[in-house]
Amino acid sequence: MPFLDRADAGRRLAGKLLHLRGADVAVLGLPRGGIPVAYEVARALGATLDVIVVRKIGLPSQPELAMGAIGEDGVRIINRGVVIGERITEQVFMQVEERERAEVERRARRFRGDRPRTPLTGRTAVIVDDGIATGSTARAACEVARAHGAARVVLAVPVAPRTAIPALSSVADEVVCLETPDRFMAIGQWYGDFSQTSDEEVVTLLNRAATAATAATAATAATAATAGTAATATTAATTATTVTAAMDAQVEVIAGPVRLPGHLYVPQAAAGIVVFAHGSGSSRHSPRNQFVASVLGQAGLGTLLFDLLTNDEERDRSTVFDISLLAGRLRDATRWLRAQEAAGQAPIGYFGASTGAGAALWAAAEPGTDISAIVSRGGRPDLAAPRLASVRAPTLLIVGGQDDLVLDLNRHVLEQLPAGSRLAVVPGATHLFEEPGALEQVAALAADWFTDHLAPQRSAMSDRPQ
Fold first, then answer.
1. Residue 400 forms beta bridges with which residues?
2. Based on the domain organization, do 153 and 266 belong to the same domain?
3. Exposed end of the chain (fewer CB within 10 Å): N or C?
4. Are 208 and 274 in a shared domain?
């Protein structure tokens, strides 16, 4: 047998992942059997360990065929090919989702207790299981981690059939697998001891990892405190102040009479903060917006992703395209953001996708909004036509070269935007920028635009006489 047990498999798997040591890594084990493997990986990498709870949304008539998947915090992945091909209605999908959602929440509480979910925004997520048979759960976990904001996803398992690797490589940035047999019958045949992992064992390992992480943090703080030099003390005090000002948390955005869930990330000494306005049928969990947000974070920019609509409002198609309503929510969210201590005096920009781009332009035209820069991804700026003349922020319109209708609309709108605005066309890309490398180009363009237009403003503010 290649592996004595799951712990042995985890130690051997960790040896192939040492290139990640020192990076901003979160190790996520799939329960239950993946946790003993993940525990050894996290310990070897000096990384945090958490559980990633996902559930497939199977067809009612064929549960093994996934029409989607769900994760914590409302993450929902839809396999549109299956949904359309099988003519699944929204009602049917939601019935199955509701049942599986309850199981996700139950398992998360059972395994993690009162600890919050480990944040993934801008980090490398290493997803670990004890092996892969069909790969459907591993695929769902990769997609959920990406939706939670992971900048890079690594899938690591001790064993999987060779035929499964290409499909897994399409959802993970890197796949690490120790054994890839051509003849594969079951995961258990590759272990000397493949006894079932209990819930209690999962909870014990997660608690042990959390305790070790707390002890390591305390030890580091104690070492810094006893270093004995004024320079060390000054540095430690400065660092503590900076960390307090930074933020990476789930938040509740107050927008008029409603409270909207969101995620606010503000790095140390942020050059600016970008507020995202998602398109129709999307949410703060948009994988595309999450990816762009991670790239902006790497460029030293803060990000706020939040839901523009409540759950009830999302079911009403008239509100989904009510640009005035969406713009009002965006304006209120901006006011809320400016009141947050972590935001400080950082300049603010808008990133709008599809209908969200129309809302961003409409909101930016409001008196007193004071938006410094706007980026539109595959946007419908024409929906803000009555307000375009009042937009003052330089705007970058990013459109796919194959998105003919939207490209024509953006070319026409460009003439009505303020000086310094421009249109960037991504060759060969369609509306959703699904082509290889297309979304990466969008993120790079957006990062450059916001860095150029937000950072200089911060420098100007710091130069003002006090």
1. 426
2. no
3. C
4. no
Q: Is residue 79 in a domain?
A: yes
Above 50 in pLDDT, residue 231?
no
Which DSSP category does 3 fall into?
B
207 and 291 belong to one structural domain? no
CA 239 from centroid of its chain's CA atoms: 26
Identify whether the C-beta of residue 409 lies closer than 8 Å to the C-beta of residue 381: yes
Same domain, 428 and 279: yes
Per-residue CA distances from 39 to 29, 125, 211, 296 (Å): 8, 14, 13, 31
- Phi and psi dihedrals of 392, rounded to 5? -110, -15
- Domain holding 110, by residue range, is 6-213
Whether residues 441 and 311 fall in one domain: yes
Residue 128, SS3? strand
For the record, the structure tokens of 83 come out as 């949904």
Number of domains within the chain: 2
Q: Comparing C-alpha atoms, which of 153, 90, 92, 83 is closest to residue 120?
A: 153
Look at the chain and count its residues.
466
| Residue 17 Cα to chain centre, angstroms | 22
0.85 surpassed by pTM: no
- Could you tell me which residues come within 8 angstroms of residue 288 by beta carbon, excluding any fewer than 6 positions away? 353, 377, 432, 433, 439
- Beta strands (DSSP E) in 233-347 are 247-255, 258-266, 273-277, 302-306
Q: Please give the DSSP secondary-structure letter assigned to residue 117.
A: P
Q: Is the peptide bond before 32 cis (omega within 30 degrees of 0)?
A: yes
* CA atoms of 150 and 294, how far apart (whole Å): 7
Region 393-414: mean pLDDT is 95
Give pLDDT tens digits for 425-458: 999 999 989 888 888 899 999 999 999 999 765 5
Q: What is the pLDDT of residues 136-190, one digit of tens each?
A: 788 889 988 988 899 999 999 999 999 989 989 989 999 999 999 998 989 999 9
Q: Do 56 and 169 lie in a common domain?
A: yes
The answer to whether residues 162 and 132 touch, using CB atoms and an 8 Å cutoff, is no
C-beta separation of 381 from 397 below 8 A? yes
- Domain ends where: 173, 194, 213? 213
Q: Are residues 339 and 376 in the same domain?
A: yes
Strands across the sheet containing 62-70:
55-59, 62-70, 76-78
Locate 418 and state its tokens.
């303020």
